[in-house]
Specification:
- By secondary structure, this protein is an alpha/beta fold.
- The protein has two domains: 6-125 and 339-403, FAD/NAD(P)-binding domain (3-Layer(bba) Sandwich); 132-333, FAD/NAD(P)-binding domain (3-Layer(bba) Sandwich).
- It is 26% helix and 18% strand.
- It contains nine helices and 21 strands.
- Strand 9 (158-162), helix 4 (166-177) and strand 10 form a beta-alpha-beta unit.
- Helix 1 (6-17) crosses helix 9.
- The chain starts with 5 loop residues before the first helix and ends in a 6-residue tail after the last helix.
Length: 409
């Protein structure tokens, strides 16, 4: 097992139930990504009661709240201790190679030979920064979401935030609250209210069955796996954070960053279409919740169906921005992440560098699995509460593979 985050620990727990001997290799400490690759104020998007792992649930005093990063780290580390996970910390994997009877995993602390390998190193190891970054003029400072910690570490002056996923809108809001002018470049995005009909929107996602939709039931799986994270934020006030809220606060909204030429940022003019599409998809999802609620007796009566104001398009969004004028002093790239498989010396990656897998079972590499990737086996796969179902499926497949001498039949 490579990676001791929540997904790796979940499958470790289930493999123990199957009496499968295993070891978990972690380059840092348990929950290392949560410790090292998050900004200071970040909270989980999911309510605390959804922070479930196999045989382990949140037991604190604020089930409807949202964990801070220290609380998340403590939650995952305590889970590792409770299940006595066989973790080797501070052990970096340098290569994984196929051998006749399985795999050879080289680390900076020796070599391990094994029948199976589970890649649980996460989906967000390296920021995806578009090539246009190379055209940013000096002396503008460029920062990725991995490198950002708080507004005080940014230069004084205006900030261009590129990307309107959960990360983009949260950081645009935080930086604007620090007193810096913020311009947010918006491309494709997923809009959601924080609460719907008196309940958290993720309660609806879980209970209506939307989150449990299997990967082999999704119409356009590649597109679903590539969607940005929804515009949500976890706060004590359970606030909704969407583009209307940001505009009302004074954040300037522009279109997708298309190019930088001669020191000028060029933005797409398709904002209205992007807004209309995001609003339409949100409405269809809310209709799904309403249809489910109309056919299901709820334990508590839900509030009436709600409809939300459409996303307001700026009257005349600017299409260009002179990056040499001094208006913008830094650019924050909230443009997504990708896994890091530089150490994987097995031919299982496609031309985009993504794993070729069937619901986490790696294609053309018998005995190799992955967990914790977007829509791996279900729509909820990357969330903490999604790890258990995926882990049980994959651990069962792995146990059968071993029981049949390297065959899955």
């Amino acid at each position: 097992m490579i990676g001791a985050g929540h997904a790796g620990l979940a499958i470790s727990r289930v493999l123990t139930e199957h009496s499968v001997d295993h070891v978990v290799i972690e380059r840092g400490e348990v929950a290392n990504s949560w410790r090292r690759e998050r900004w200071d104020s970040l909270r989980l998007l999911t309510p605390n009661w959804q922070s479930r792992l196999p045989g382990y649930a949140y037991t604190g005093s604020d089930p409807d709240g949202f964990m801070t990063m220290p609380e998340v780290i403590g939650h995952i580390a305590n889970f590792a201790a409770v299940i006595s996970a066989p973790v080797r910390t501070h052990t970096a994997v340098t290569s994984v190679r196929r051998i006749d009877d399985g795999y050879r995993v080289a680390t900076d602390d020796g070599e391990i030979r094994c029948r199976c390998v589970v890649l649980a190193s996460g989906a967000a190891n390296i920021p995806r920064v578009p090539q246009v970054r190379e055209a940013v003029p000096e002396p503008i400072e460029c920062v990725t979401a991995f490198e950002y910690h708080n507004p005080q570490r940014l230069p004084r002056g205006g900030v261009l935030v590129v990307g309107a996923s959960a990360t983009g809108v949260q950081l645009a809001d935080e930086i604007h609250r620090s007193g810096r002018p913020v311009t947010l470049a918006v491309g494709e995005h997923v809009r959601l209210p924080r609460t719907y009909r008196g309940r958290d929107v993720l309660w609806w996602m879980e209970h209506s069955g939307v989150w449990s939709q299997r990967y082999d039931e999704v119409d356009d799986l590649e597109r679903a796996r590539g969607l940005p994270s929804p515009q949500l934020v976890g706060t004590p006030e359970h606030m909704t954070l969407d583009l209307n809220v940001l505009q009302a606060a004074g954040v300037e909204i522009v279109g997708r960053l298309a190019a930088i030429r001669d020191g000028r940022a060029l933005f797409s003019g398709g904002l209205r279409n992007q807004f209309a599409l995001a609003d339409l998809k949100m409405q269809r999802l809310l209709d799904t919740f309403d249809a489910w609620a109309s056919q299901t007796p709820l334990d508590v009566e839900a509030a009436p169906a709600e409809r939300f104001e459409p996303t307001r398009a700026p009257a005349s969004p600017r299409l260009t921005l002179d990056l040499r004028s001094g208006e913008i002093r830094s650019i924050l790239w909230a443009t997504g992440f990708r896994p890091d498989y530089r150490w994987l010396e097995v031919p299982v990656l496609d031309r985009k560098g993504e794993l070729r897998h069937d619901g986490g079972v790696i294609v053309d590499a018998p005995g190799m699995y992955a967990i914790g990737l977007p829509v791996l086996r279900r729509r909820k796969s990357t969330f903490i509460l999604g790890a258990e179902d995926d882990a049980r499926d994959l651990a069962g497949h792995l146990a059968r593979y071993l029981a049949h001498g390297g065959r899955t039949g």
